[in-house]
Design goal:
mainly beta; single chain; about 0% helix; seven-stranded mixed beta sheet
Length: about 120
């Protein structure tokens, strides 16, 4: 059974930072592309960042230069470091995993963690 457990969300002021973590079980982590999506109220879910098995990364234009995705295969964990947060980053953030090379084709989703950017 595949499980993805996210943590690290919370309330942060504009300009602040958060680091999200997602620990996976039930998969061969090192063989899977990992990624983060987000969904804000009234908006479609969007791909924020992805990282392949060879550590190739991709980002949504709206987060480039502010967010960094990384993975630790020894810990079965993927991270999303979020800096210079803006109110428009407020959303529920979901971890995904896929056997596809691209995170645009997720196989499994976590339950999500809420990020709220507000003063």
């Amino acid at each position: 059974q595949v499980q993805l457990v996210e943590s690290g969300g919370g309330l942060v002021q504009p300009g602040g930072s958060l680091r999200l973590s997602c620990t996976a079980s039930g998969i061969r982590f090192s063989s899977n592309t990992m990624g983060w999506y987000r969904q804000a109220p009234g908006k479609q879910r969007e791909l924020v960042a992805g990282i392949t098995i060879s550590d190739t990364t991709n980002y949504a234009d709206s987060v480039k230069g502010r967010f960094t995705i990384s993975r630790d295969n020894a810990k079965n964990t993927v991270y999303l470091q979020m800096n210079s947060l803006k109110p428009e980053d407020t959303a529920r953030y979901y971890c995904i995993t896929t056997r596809h090379r691209s995170a645009s084709y997720p196989n499994y989703w976590g339950q999500g963690t809420q990020v709220t950017v507000s003063s």
